[in-house]
């Protein structure tokens, strides 16, 4: 190979490299991941017991970023968490992390880590893959294992809703298990007449199981049958927590309270591929003055024909509460699918809402695209080494000629 050929080869390799750089420049980005808090501490955990904490994971990218979580250290088998999920800047992820020490572990303090890292590839717009620089953070985890049982809890946010005669009166409260054993809090309600001179009704209810470190909203339904239209007072106590509150409510004439609700949204994937199972979530909010029984009814249409009906069971939705109706759908053909429906409640119905999913064919090209990039890079390396080899041969030939 003469000197002119070597120069032409160099220019060719430079051209290919520049082309690939321009091709990949918009498809590689650095994503920074953030974690709060940086340390999770589990105190007073019983051997064979349970405790839970939360970690908030965020990224600075507007595109969905795949996150992988893995345990490190001698407590790896004790930790329970979701290993893979997606995060974006506007949608940070709250990761519950629970610990269950073995029954035969000695008392003491134990440590470990959770490695949180971004994936090397993320699905970009129009089904393309976007390469990202892998980012990794470690969350420090400490566990204090004890053998002393602690029964401790607290109760807050006591509330009650007025009801129409014959309907249920709903009492609500939040109970937090601050101990290290599973508890079943007892709720006692004494209902007094308008003048608070005599008890007209008494209710005892088991609030249900609450695991250590967790909080639960307890709702107690009391039938208003037998209570005349009037104002009443209720002494509500969570016996195990030594907490109580005095509340007042009214029993009203039938029809006095308004039933209202709105279908907030139908949420699903904007794009999908054939054969992919996609979740559908319809959110309904009770904006009225009474508890309602709500049911979602809808359908999925494709090219004007119904391909799946969406009918949920009926759920009781309390005042100001949001209830979610969940469905799943697997498209078999490419094209636009329209998801629509409304919620029926207390003889009423919401406005119809809808969402559209654009489904494309499951292209093999998308799967092979990362492999294609790797092959191109190998070709560049091969050409570069070949040029070096030819250049060495050329210099060696010149040296021999000069002799």
* SS-derived structural category: alpha+beta
Residues in β-strands, percent = over 45%
**For the report, how would you describe the main beta sheet?**
7 strands, mixed
How many angstroms does the end-to-end distance come to?
19 Å
**The first-level CATH class name of the largest domain:** Mainly Beta
Principal-axes shape call: flat
Number of domains: 4
Count of beta strands: 30
CATH superfamily of the largest domain: Immunoglobulins
Which radius of gyration do the C-alpha atoms yield?
32 Å
CATH topology descriptor of the largest domain? Immunoglobulin-like
Helix content class? 10-25%
Average pLDDT, rounded to a whole number, is 86
Q: What quaternary form is this?
A: single chain
Q: Uncertain segments of ≥5 residues (pLDDT<50)?
A: 24-28, 120-132
CATH architecture descriptor of the largest domain = Sandwich
Continuous helix count: 2
Write the layout of secondary structure elements.
Blueprint (H helix, E strand, L loop, with lengths): L2 H23 L2 E3 L2 E4 L2 E8 L4 E9 L5 E8 L6 E2 L3 E4 L5 E7 L8 E11 L2 E3 L5 E5 L2 E11 L6 E8 L2 E2 L3 E10 L8 E7 L6 E8 L8 E9 L6 E9 L4 E10 L8 E8 L2 E3 L4 E9 L5 E11 L2 E7 L3 E3 L4 E8 L5 E11 L2 E2 L3 E8 L3 H39 L1
Parallel strand pairs: 1-11, 3-12, 14-20, 22-30
Antiparallel strand pairs: 2-4, 4-8, 5-7, 5-9, 6-8, 9-12, 10-11, 13-15, 15-18, 16-17, 16-19, 19-20, 21-23, 23-27, 24-25, 24-26, 24-28, 28-29, 28-30
